[in-house]
Amino acid sequence: MPEQIHARVEACYQQAEAFFKQPFPRPQISFKLRGQKAGVAHLTENKLRFNLQLYRDNHEDFLRQTVPHEVAHMIAHQLFGPRIQPHGEEWQLIMRGVYELPPHRCHSYEVERRKVNRFIYRCACTDGEFPFSAQRHALVAKGRRYYCRRCKVTLTFSGEQRQE
Fold this sequence. Notes:
It is a single chain. 40% of the residues lie in helices and 18% in strands. The chain is of the alpha+beta class. The protein has two domains: 2-98, Zincin-like (2-Layer Sandwich), CATH 3.30.2010; 117-163, no CATH class. Strands 1-3-2 form a three-stranded mixed β-sheet, covered by helices on one side. It has a three-stranded antiparallel β-sheet with strand order 5-4-6. The protein starts with a helix and ends with a strand. Its main location: cytoplasm. InterPro entries: SprT-like_domain, Uncharacterised_SprT. It is found in: Cytoplasm.
C-alpha cells in the first residue's frame, strides 16, 4: 500500500521537474498521521506525512488529489520561499498548472470520530450543563476555575460523565 503513495509522490515530483525544468529534493515520507488530516507537508523538514487509514478508505481520490496537494506545498515552498500562504496563489498555480487539478483546500473523506469523555459541570443559576473535556477537567483539578457567564458563580463538577 505505501508503495503506491511513494510511486505517486515520485511521479508528482517528476511532473514538477519537467514543468519547472529544475530538480527538487525528495522528501522523507511517513505514514504516522491519524485523525482528520489526510496529509501534512512539513516544509522546513522536507517531510510528508500521510494518513494510511484515510488512504485505505479513499485510495483512488487520495492518490489523485491528496498526494499532489501535499507535494504542491513542498514545491511551492522550494520555489517561492517560506513567506507564502499555505493555499495561496503559488500553491494554486502548481495545483492547476502542473497537476491540472482543482486546488481544493480540504478533503471530503468520511472520518470516524473517536469517542471522548465529557465531565459534566453545573451552575447554581440554571439547569444547564457544561460538558468539559478531560483536559479542562484536569485543569480544574489543578485549581483553575471556570465561571457561569450569567451569574458569575464557579462551575462545579456534578460527578457525572458521558461519552460523546
